[in-house]
Specification:
The protein has about 160 residues and is an all-alpha fold. Helices cover about 70% and strands about 0% of the residues.
Length: about 160
């Protein structure tokens, strides 16, 4: 599969801004939680590029294979904390907005586990990963995790 275009080549200034904002938002909450959110949204959006990249990043940050593999069935798997469950429920509710606005239960769980500031940070992160998913799926992007690190480092420098 060949990419339809290279966003960093055709809009470098905007992509650098997007990458910097993405990195800052991702750094605002605990890394393990952020990677779970990125993987789960990417699963819902069928973004192979982002699933691959964020599973590799999660492993590098110490995430277990079990928790990565069970992520699509997080409700039934006992290996996630209440905080992670609240974040994953919120991720699903916001990623699936087009399926209806039944996100009140997810928000109640979010409210019990996250401060208001953390709720904003998490919601921004969900928006960021959904944006990356749309770029990757829309333009048929594929970047290996090591190459993505180089791109990210260069973009935020």
């Amino acid at each position: 599969m060949s990419p339809k275009l290279a966003p960093f080549a055709v809009a470098p200034a905007l992509m650098k801004t997007w990458m910097k904002a993405s990195s800052e938002i991702a750094a605002s909450l605990e890394p393990s939680l952020i990677e779970l959110v990125k993987i789960r949204a990417s699963q819902i959006n069928a973004c192979a590029n982002c699933i691959n990249m964020h599973a590799a990043e999660a492993r590098a940050k110490g995430e277990t294979e079990q928790r990565i593999y069970l992520l699509s069935a997080w409700r039934e798997a006992p290996c996630y904390t209440d905080r992670e469950r609240a974040a994953l429920g919120w991720t699903e509710a916001l990623t699936r907005l087009s399926e209806g606005h039944a996100h009140e239960a997810a928000y109640e769980a979010l409210w019990s586990e996250f401060t208001q500031e953390e709720q904003v940070k998490l919601t921004l992160m969900i928006n960021v990963i959904n944006g990356w998913n749309r770029l990757a799926v829309g333009f048929s992007l594929w970047i290996e995790p090591e190459a993505a690190k180089v791109t990210a480092t260069a973009a935020v420098a």
